[in-house]
Amino acid sequence: MAVWNLGSVNADRVYRLPHLPEPGETLAAQSHRTGLGGKGANMSVAVARAGSRVHHIGAVGPDGGWMRDRLADYGVGVDRIATVDEVSGHAIIAVDARGENQIILYPGANLAIEPAGTEIALADATAGDIAVCQNETNAQAAFLEAAGLRGLLRCYAAAPFSVDAVAAALPLTDLLVLNAVEAAQLELGMDRPLPELDVADIVVTLGAGGCRWIRTAGGTVREFAAPRVEVVDTTGAGDTFTGYLLAALDQGMEMAQAIGLAQKAGALMVTRLGTADVIPERVEVENYFARG
């Protein structure tokens, strides 16, 4: 089995600050690093480090060869990442002393994906595989439609949030993953509570509050407590959670068990500074929580 990810590939430029800047405020950064990121790339790395096969579908610019190479080094299939005549996506990330972040994103090549290319990219996908996409690229509808025709489980991670984008994707989605803020925005925008949405499963991450799983067919809601860790940086934690969740489902785990593993991976991720480059390996997750 495999996970097929239509997702962004970004250069993350991370600045450590004493606090997040106020409007008009100039701050000197305490440190700076450039690494691999983007919600899509983060999820692909998380899937690979959780032990599943993952194919990344996306685009970089002429400046993005190092990101494609790094994904390959991390075990991600990169044959379906195109090089286009546009600067690669990149993000400016500010992280404060509490681990909270502020992000400025320039999508670049991530919005230059050929919709027809996403369908071609799924030519080797088989029924039972998993397809996932987010809101940092274009061509989500074409991708999800093609995935549905091939019998793939379709997951949609609703970030960066747009109620119009989510409304368009919902009829093509089997599993919706979003955070608490996005969930509230979706309920307001759709004027319906989450359990009434036309999607089989909804997983809402709640940060330190844990996680909520809604199975809409039966109207059941299950809550999961969050593992307790010391927070260093929350950047990429949600993507790590989603990647691990999909890898666990790909490996045959039931949803509750998959959520438990994904929560542990996300929790370990917030103890680290960085994004795709520091997503934990499966053995690290298991060893870390075996100690407690």
UniProtKB/TrEMBL annotation:
Q: Where in the cell is it found?
A: Cytoplasm
- Enzyme class name: transferase
Q: Which InterPro entries match?
A: PfkB_dom (IPR011611), Ribo/fructo_kinase (IPR002139), Ribokinase (IPR011877), Ribokinase-like (IPR029056)
Q: Which residues form the Carbohydrate kinase PfkB domain?
A: 6-281
Pathway named in the protein's UniProt entry: Carbohydrate metabolism; D-ribose degradation; D-ribose 5-phosphate from beta-D-ribopyranose: step 2/2
Q: What cofactor is this protein dependent on?
A: Mg(2+)
Cross-referenced Gene3D superfamilies: 3.40.1190.20
Bound how, and how many: what does the cofactor note say? Requires a divalent cation, most likely magnesium in vivo, as an electrophilic catalyst to aid phosphoryl group transfer. It is the chelate of the metal and the nucleotide that is the actual substrate.
Task: Give the EC number(s) listed in the UniProt record.
Answer: 2.7.1.15
User: Which terms under GO biological process does the entry name?
Assistant: D-ribose catabolic process
Annotated positions binding substrate: 10-12, 38-42, 136, 239
Q: Where are the transmembrane segments?
A: none
Where are the active-site residues found? 239 (proton acceptor)
Q: Which reaction does it catalyse?
A: D-ribose + ATP = D-ribose 5-phosphate + ADP + H(+)
Residues involved in K(+) binding: 233, 235, 269, 272, 274
Asked if the Swiss-Prot or TrEMBL record annotates the protein with the keyword Disulfide bond, the reply is no
Q: How is its activity regulated?
A: Activated by a monovalent cation that binds near, but not in, the active site. The most likely occupant of the site in vivo is potassium. Ion binding induces a conformational change that may alter substrate affinity.
Q: Which GO terms describe its molecular function?
A: ATP binding; metal ion binding; ribokinase activity
- Provide GO CC annotations from the record: cytoplasm
Mind listing the UniProt keywords for this protein, alphabetically? ATP-binding, Carbohydrate metabolism, Cytoplasm, Kinase, Magnesium, Metal-binding, Nucleotide-binding, Potassium, Transferase
The yes or no answer to whether the keyword Metal-binding is present is yes
Similarity comment: family membership: Belongs to the carbohydrate kinase PfkB family. Ribokinase subfamily.
Q: What does this protein do?
A: Catalyzes the phosphorylation of ribose at O-5 in a reaction requiring ATP and magnesium. The resulting D-ribose-5-phosphate can then be used either for sythesis of nucleotides, histidine, and tryptophan, or as a component of the pentose phosphate pathway.
Protein's recorded name: Ribokinase
To which species is this protein native? Pseudooceanicola batsensis (strain ATCC BAA-863 / DSM 15984 / KCTC 12145 / HTCC2597) (Oceanicola batsensis)
